[in-house]
Write a structure and sequence with these properties.
single chain; seven-stranded mixed sheet; three-stranded mixed sheet; 12 strands; 34% strand; globular; binds glutamine
């Protein structure tokens, strides 16, 4: 008898306190999974993985603190919750921020530089590859950070102009750019396949 494995229906959280969370929600639906807009600690316990969207990292960090989610989320990440930070999400996950004295979740061994491209290059789009898994990915940068330094245990997945714009460490993935603002869902598929469905 042939047994066709049922596709696992995942609950993928998107931190929805501020920023570009709706676009991630749409991409999750498009891939046939269940998006969960995360606005409190309870929702954090109902998800298979979490996306921290782009937006304003100072505001998002403050809201996480105000809603008493910062410490529980930090604990969940250190106990292995798959998490993907895009843009401001990268800044929130960084253990160091070169041009800001306040760190937030401080989970990943990277140093982020905020608004790293200056005014002239406040926003731009370029094609890049992600490791040897994704080629020609349309990367949209909006007042984006990059990673200026990282620990040896961090795997660099993409460079744009010699700057690190995508990296992973353990259960964490970060992109300085915004895949949710394009029609290309390969980055989300990569997060799902490599971080959530890895077994
Ligand atoms: N510049 C923003 C910050 O520092 C990040 C921008 C973004 O998420 N598009 O928080």
């Amino acid at each position: 008898m042939t047994c066709i494995a049922e596709k696992k229906h995942l609950h993928i959280g998107v931190l929805a306190l501020q920023g570009a969370f709706r676009e991630h929600v749409d991409h999750i639906k498009y891939l046939g999974h269940q998006p969960v807009e995360v606005r409190n600690v309870k929702a954090l316990s109902e998800i298979d993985g979490l996306i921290i969207p782009g937006g304003e990292s100072t505001t998002m960090g403050k809201l996480l603190n105000d809603f008493e989610m910062l410490v529980p989320l930090k604990e969940l990440i250190s106990s292995g919750l798959p998490v993907w930070g895009t843009c401001a999400g990268l800044i929130l996950l960084a253990k160091n921020i070169e041009n800001d004295s306040t760190v937030h979740l401080a989970a990943m061994d990277v140093t982020a530089v905020r608004n790293a491209y200056g005014r002239q290059l406040g926003s731009f789009k370029t094609n890049t590859s992600i490791g040897n898994v994704i080629s020609d990915f349309p990367a949209v940068f909006i007042r984006a950070p990059y990673i200026s330094k990282c620990d040896n245990s961090v795997e660099v997945l993409s460079l744009v102009d010699d700057k690190i714009v995508c990296a992973r460490q353990d259960n964490m993935l970060v992109t300085a750019f915004h895949p949710e603002l394009t029609d290309d869902t390969r980055m989300l598929e990569f997060f799902i396949d490599t971080f959530i469905n890895k077994n």
